[in-house]
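call fold(seq) -> tokens
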Amino acid sequence: MFQLQMAAKYWTKELCAEAAKKCATRSSFKDRFSRAYRMARENGWLNEICAHTVSPQMPSGHWQKFENVFAAAQEAKTLSKFSKLKGAYASAIQHRWLDDLGLIESRRRPNYWTRERLLNLAINYETQLDFIKENSEAYQAATKKKVWAEIKLFLSPTKVYWSYDLCKTEAAKFKTRVAFHHECSGAYGYAHKKGFLDEICSHMQSAAASFGECAIEEYLLSHDLEFIPQKGFEGLPPKYRYDFYLPKFNLIIEHHGAQHETLGWGKTKAEKVIHLKGVQDRDKIKEDFAKTNNIHLIVIWQREYKGKAEVHALLEKHLNSQINGLRLNKRDLTDLEMDLIWREQTTFEDCQREAKKYQHRKDFKKYSNRIWKFSIENGFYREITSHMTRPKAHNFKWTIETAMNAAKSCESKVQFRRKFPGAVVVLEDGGLYSEACKHMTRPNQHNFLWTHEKIQEASRSCTSRNEFRRLFSGASKRADALDIFDEICSHMKQPKK
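ret:
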């Protein structure tokens, strides 16, 4: 009988390090040895045992080499996993290398999943949910072959009955609420529902602060102004929080980015436009609440500054206008305080260090889009890209002869202007444009007259007035001029009112 020799295996630091050496990246380590990865993360060994792994950020042209694509394919093993490596997969498609990579098809052959194979696979997982998520095909086979009941005996149950102590223990493993919510949503949801989320997350740092919010926090700390971040008030919904509240002066400071006046929130531009009104309505409710309760309000807009110094100047100006006789003494912040303020926040030095990896602005934008966008928004894009050069362009110069030959290949002036704008300029300067375009014809040169019969014939092919106006604009205008539009459209559906 098959013995589950690894079911009770405990992942020590040495075993985790040995497993990590078999993987080239952290993501592959997490996929192949999920239990070892989790044990290393919980005990703080992850950075040490993964020091040899490489970053998934690849330099320009990395995936254009077959050996790099082949190495990634050997790591992925299956076509489904390899397809998730977008750069390598796209290059393999482009160069037609897929057949040479030796990848295993996702769809297994009949009777592939034997009882022994399923049990061996299940040993690598800690919970039932992890096994189901990462091996849906194996889970279906285990259910069909009635092996799932046996596998469940040595996998932790998916459902966990959370308590205050369990939630607090889980929360202690994370540094930010975002990571806590993403990695352990069950404990996060239970704590939020029972009302002790803030208590168990009191040690965590806020990872969602923008550049402007970090600059404001630095100013407040350097002038020893007591403040409460993300302050909520009774009478407002829980999510309607203010960025900073100064209890000594009964004053609120809000930072508004571009999403508050032009874009809104969302992944795509369309979603941002749709959500813009909701964002502005929420801001109006918060402003009205502050006014009704006699709370001073300062709003710093992203469009008002380009750097940290300007944020500080704006804030100082507003504070002096709101608080009479305010006198502040500035002090230098320690390195630890600066680290806490700019936690997980991109800085100028980060952007400069990232930009030095690239020789062309095009590659910088393509492979480090987040840093590229951040440097533009904060006004130091030109400074960090000053060492970059433009890709060499073809030094082609139009002559009268080459321009005339280009004109002969075109059938109309519109086509000529769109296809060869440089040749058009040369011919116009030399006074030869008309001569070069003698053979060309105008599109839609014939004079077509819409008669009553032709208009009626065109209208019969349409089912609605809008369709008729869109497809036969000339006929619809002529029908309006002859005052017969309603007559020829009598068979069409009436638009909904």
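Residues 269-292 form the longest helix (24 residues).
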